[in-house]
Amino acid sequence: MRYALLINERPGADDPLDEHERAALSAEYMAFHDDPRVIGGEHLQSAETATTVRIADGEILLTDGPFADTKEIFGGYFLVEAPDLDSALEVACRVPALRFGGSVEVRPLGSPSR
């Protein structure tokens, strides 16, 4: 079964890191792609680069940023092919954002009905 690991980060949580610590953190994230259960994933640019689309009264509204009142922002994701939830959770528990106060939502992917 495929799972999405949705990584929520605390903005600025890694600001205190120096250049070497940031490089080590980046390498830690890249190492996830060596796990055969990880079939994809990307890091998102900062929330300030987002555009949110809504429809209100039949009109499309575009606004800059997520404008979410939250202490965490969606920062990236991994797609995992795992035999069960426990295996997907094992991968999720290694996500570095957890050490910086973030969270990882693990959600099975649905199959579109046709």
Characterise the protein shown here.
This protein is an alpha+beta fold and 114 residues long. It has a single domain, classed as Dimeric alpha+beta barrel (Alpha-Beta Plaits). Helix content is 18%, strand content 36%. It is flat. It starts with a strand and ends in a 6-residue tail after the last strand.
Features:
single chain, 114 residues, alpha+beta, Alpha-Beta Plaits, four-stranded antiparallel β-sheet, two-stranded antiparallel ribbon, flat, YCII, Dimeric_a/b-barrel
The average pLDDT score comes to 90
Oligomer: single chain
The CATH topology assignment is: Alpha-Beta Plaits
Number of structurally distinct domains:
1
Termini separation comes to 19 Å
* Helical content class: 10-25%
Pfam family, one: YCII
Organism: Pseudonocardia hierapolitana
Family: Belongs to the YciI family.
Protein name: YCII-related domain-containing protein
Question: Can I get a quick summary?
Answer:
The chain is of the alpha+beta class and 114 residues long.
Layout of helices and strands, plus pairs?
Layout: E1 2-9, H1 19-30, E2 38-43, E3 51-56, E4 59-64, E5 73-81, H2 85-92, E6 103-108
